[in-house]
Amino acid sequence: MAKELAIQTRGLTKRFERHLAVNDLDLQIPMGEVYGLIGPNGAGKTTLLRMLATIEEPTKGEIYINGEAVSRDHTNPKIKQRLGYLPDDFPLYDDLTVWDYLDYFARLYYLREPRRTQRIYEVLEIVQLTQKRNHLISTLSRGMKQRLSLGRTIIHEPLLLFLDEPVSGLDPIARMQFREIIKSLHEAGMTIVISSHVLSDLEDFCSYIGIMELGYLVESASIQDLYKRLSVQHLFISTLGKMDILIGELKHHPGVESWEVLPGKQQVKVQFSGTEKDAAMLLRSLISAEVPLSEFNRIQENLESIFLKLGHKQAS
Fold this sequence. Notes:
34% helix, 14 strands, alpha/beta, elongated, Rossmann fold, Alpha-Beta Plaits, 10 helices, 316 residues, four-stranded antiparallel sheet
């Protein structure tokens, strides 16, 4: 049974004078998924996120949030209460403490006591800043400041979260901490749309991927489907015996598309179209045939490789 849609757009377009930032974009994002938005600079990712977050008004087209149309005359303000948006340059108030900062935004969203204090404690726990609640923002590291910005974004318990380059400029440890927070929000049932140039992070927690170029959405699919259609996998197999025997066995396996003997090594690079289970069956058959193996390694092209291939095709 298909999931209900958290976000749907039809013919979404945004033009800035002579520049067409987003062009006739149709998008569908199921509820409870993490949707990664990737593309080169200037592809239209930020403009799309701003329109979905109801900050930027489309030139034309329709946006539906949880099945409800977003009106341009602002007659449905309750939709905004379900949204959280973290831009890539959101300013912080360095002279406030962490607690006062979150309390300020909680009041803007009309959270009343005792719920307001309870929610601030909940958010501090989520973004791992409980021990820093009485510290001035000016004393926080960059990673802590970014987690605090995320805390501000979720203080009102939104159903949909839009994140624009949230890990830009963070060190590996801070990125790992941020990834774990995103995973916990996803597990809690939140729908998340995130744009990032750090594709290895998106691979870690995204369930869907959209690829934008020149204002167009050139790909939108589950990450499993994307790998299945566009990712090439290779097997690196080394033997201590004769190479001819190994190649003779490979010829009989239906998942083996082609092979290449690597120069100077007792190793074959195999282009393989089978599943992980098929690779295990191939390994079992080679062992049964008493081929003396010293290495059997399966490597699949990652999201960055897929993106670079598609980008090259689009540019061509």
